[in-house]
């Protein structure tokens, strides 16, 4: 029963969210070689501890979020919009 | 055991008698009784039979740790097995039965199992039936399957009702600053301290009365009443009859509140139970401690119980549970019990395993240095043999006659909830118990749950826990509090003897089982647990785990901490499945989606079917028609004249913005950048890994305005995917996506007379000729009467066909225009079954073919993949494994004997080689009205070219058997598409 502080809606139960994946992956250009895509899609670290992951507030504002979470304790360190423009705008507003 | 109800004393209401039925006979108790106390007062000693050996069992405790008095309660659909009689509140008309016994608990034929006890020793199942390695298919497994039913019948728990649960259950949510679990001296003080400091406090108690250990001491009643009143005044939210069964991440606690389980005639508007999800900023666990027994021969005989239980029956329920009482203790806690029982008129002998005795309570005969060795008696205890220490072991020293034997082997703090959070319990050798391990979470132990034994210290411990929960740094009372240290005794037996000394009475695990496990090489406590099933019954070893660990430690020649403990997992006590389900049952199990035309369809004879969450039209049977006759007629009518089908459930996503065309060009495998306004295009989108995600048509309504359609099934998934791409990967694209599925009512109008049908419904002068609205053309239209919508000339059926969309709330108006026009031309309404037949004839794919494993080439749509532009999945669809020539390819399937049919899901095998996974599989089968026989779609290695002229078997061994088939092109009807473009 994680609780995630959505920057747009407030703190909500994790059942409102759906898990995306590893938030640290930079996807290659569409015309990048197969090997680059292979690495981006299939190679994942199995982190014990802090990792950045994507979640979508699918039963809320539907925004994709970057969530920094401890995979052992489920402690959540930060939540920000995945969209860099929105993240920047929120930071500027603070 | 010669228990009798006293004339006075206890918390029961003697002015309020209650009648109940036990094993078919009527008995009486009082308001305030539990089923266990009422049965005890009625002289009932044998209340059940044990799990494996069918030994008679009686009441062993007065609480949640009960392992003997496990009964079935209720009748008919409300029959509930494995209820602890010690926790079941008595009410008028309560109906209960003993279980695991036939014909009854007093005369049980299954007790013969006891004579064959060696067959049920640890690992019996594994050794006998899984002689071949477990999980491997072979002789042992076969034997197992043969005997399993018999053994389950002989050894088992009570039976649940086979009927649907007639009761309602609610889910509810709550927030608080501090959740206090347990309302004994520690819990009440914790709740009061926090509430008086202004915190929002919830106090949860599994019992029906607040007070915990206060309830067992009449001298403390004034103090208890004052505390209960004070927490009420302080605004504490109190939940009784509520068990905190689990702690979860982020301060979440799961509670089950038994709302009506204690009522004779519950308000039908109340739920039976309420499942609470509580989110607390901090949690105080004042969950108390459970007294444990000692393993010795016959320690499960009715009339043997924990010492504290006797005190509870005496002081809370007004019952003197035995006349001649022997108490065998290892610690100070039994002295108060001895004094109370003696004062109530019992003849009490107190055997203390410790040699030095300082003071005997008044009227109690002291027997220092003695521990229980074995009990005598048949269905009830008649005497106990006592042993004295001799060297490293024990030797028989005395015999005492008695009708009640009370045992105190020590106390186990209830650390279960803390363990749920991963805090590993730590062994305290001085107190001979596990204490909660450290945790970084805001969870604070209080009272005897923290190993604090004295009531005053427990109260102080509760105050301290509350203050810590509020962020203060305070000293808590140290664990302990007995005058003389405990002398741990876990098992008493004479060297070299074998006896049934129960460690886990609920699962019939004995000391010898633990030693056998050790002899057979088990050293890990987790393995021990699984091999012997110790602690795996419904009580999760509340009484037996510590003894089992101690015996294992002894066998290994180690200390208890070196053996470790197993982790407790939720639930603390069993939770009814109905409570977990709540209101999400039957029609509320999942959301229901109806199209805007749902009612209209029903009025016009539709039979509906489920398609994911959607209710869709399945077929429109005319009088006397079967489903098969109906869909064949509908499909044939579409090919001959015209048919109308509700397609409103198709996913619809508005893709809008200056970069919308560029976005679609990246998402779809084919080109969308130059799609003209007023045209639609069929597109396929892949996942990153090159596998097909979904397909559908996208319509360009304006320069920066597209309407994407998706399959019904994948609408939600595609929407999430587009949002992910726009927000995480390509945030610079100026595109907005909006789900508009529910905005539109949509129909497909298909057949040679489709244009004529629609034209009759449009505003006069609207031109939808091929010149004005060519194949794949899109245009806004106005219906007669002024309803505005969209029309697109697209075809799934392979006929001349249109999709017509109008605003959802005007859908019925559209149908009321379309249907007369359709009927006039000899057309019909058609459902999913006919739609399936039409698309299978054409070889058009849907979810059955695009099942998340197939590439665009597998589906025969490789020409849809652009080589001129990159798109999602373009790189990884070229992986060597996905481009092998022997990949499965979409094919059409005809039965060799055209009068035969075959099944969807059948495996396609080369003739004569029906084995393993075969060469392919059948995804869809229909009767084709156009071809006049059964046809199918499927996949087979290499595609239809590779199988031309070869014999193939559609193998379905469990249903239809083998059918000879031919593999053909998937485009089985009108492969050139003449009809569609006409
Ligand atoms: Zn949100």
UniProtKB/TrEMBL annotation, chain A:
Native source organism of the sequence: Albidovulum sediminicola
Highest rank taxon of the organism: Bacteria
Protein name: Sarcosine oxidase subunit delta
Pfam families found in the cross-reference section: SoxD
InterPro entries in the record: SoxD, SoxD_sf
Taxonomic path: Bacteria, Pseudomonadati, Pseudomonadota, Alphaproteobacteria, Rhodobacterales
UniProtKB/TrEMBL annotation, chain B:
UniProt keywords, alphabetically: Oxidoreductase
Keyword Oxidoreductase tagged: yes
Start and end residues of each Aminomethyltransferase C-terminal domain: 889-974
Domain FAD/NAD(P)-binding: 177-358
Superkingdom as given in the UniProt entry: Bacteria
InterPro entries recorded: 2Fe-2S-bd_N (IPR042204), FAD/NAD-bd_sf (IPR036188), FAD/NAD-binding_dom (IPR023753), GcvT/YgfZ/DmdA (IPR028896), GcvT/YgfZ_C (IPR029043), GcvT_C (IPR013977), GCVT_N (IPR006222), Sarcosine_oxidase_asu (IPR006277)
Gene3D superfamilies: 2Fe-2S iron-sulphur cluster binding domain, sarcosine oxidase, alpha subunit, N-terminal domain, FAD/NAD(P)-binding domain, Probable tRNA modification gtpase trme, domain 1
Matches recorded under PANTHER family: AMINOMETHYLTRANSFERASE (PTHR43757), AMINOMETHYLTRANSFERASE, MITOCHONDRIAL (PTHR43757:SF2)
NCBIfam families referenced in this protein's UniProt entry, alphabetically: soxA
Annotated protein name in UniProt: Sarcosine oxidase subunit alpha family protein
